[in-house]
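REQUEST FORM: STRUCTURE PREDICTION
Request ID: SP-0412
Submitted by: Lab K.M.
Chain count: 1
Length (residues): 294
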Amino acid sequence: MMSKAQSSPGNECPPFPESFDRDLYGFRDDFSLWMSALARRVALKKDIDSLLELHSALQNDFSEQRSALYSACRLDCQNKVMALINEPIPANEMPFEALQIGVAGSEPNGNKRWHLTVDGGSEHQLFYGHSALANHENYLQNHEPIGGTLVLDGIWPPSTTVRALSFPGEVGLKVNLFYDDDALQASFSEWLKSARKTINFPMAGKKVVKSKELEDWHRMRVLPYMDLWLYQEAFKLHFDEIDIARLLFRSEDDEDDKNGIGDNEYKKSLQRTQKRAESLIQPSVFFSLRYEET
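STATUS: Completed
RESULT:
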């Protein structure tokens, strides 16, 4: 659950971040954008949780080294939450850079030269030609069709040799395209069984999301609420609930007053938003979301 930042009794509510603008959170029914936006906040909440644990440890056992680490982590969290507030909607792109493969030219010996661009620009070259193809059977005998190591949330199992990945449940996988599809599919099934046993990721059951839910999340102002909470935790501030409720839900004109909509209605709306936000920012819920066309 989202804990509330503490404030000293009698202190006035500090100002909201100047760059916060609820109207910047404008997308409604683009599921890929929602997932990308939520992913950033799920990851940042984890950083915030680690920061709070470090602060608690610092209170119980102070050291200059631990204090310096806490200050660095806190500054990192502050920078990240301000980046969210300044640009709440992520660019509409794939969560992982696409693998691009193309013939870039030929070598003097007639072999094709291929360029592979992976992970946002690191470039590798793969050369093969008559000699490699002539030794095809020997090559297959010495190279498995599916390979890769399993990484859970940056914690390396004893045999891993690849980099840690961004989110829990992601794994590295190497596919050898010299094998035919049947061999790859059979090998992947075996690899997947081993991966499931090794990771044993506690994932929630599949949660189907339709466009109506996305509209509700937008109407409830789930993302701006998340960012205001993260901001409070990162900067050790406290905003009164009624101030947050007015900021998120009050109309800019006087229509609310004319229709008898006041603070009680704002507070009820905030309570519903808080409950939904606290659910969606949990990793097990986030990873269970699946979109279904209406």
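NOTES: The mean pLDDT is 74.
Reviewed by: T.R.
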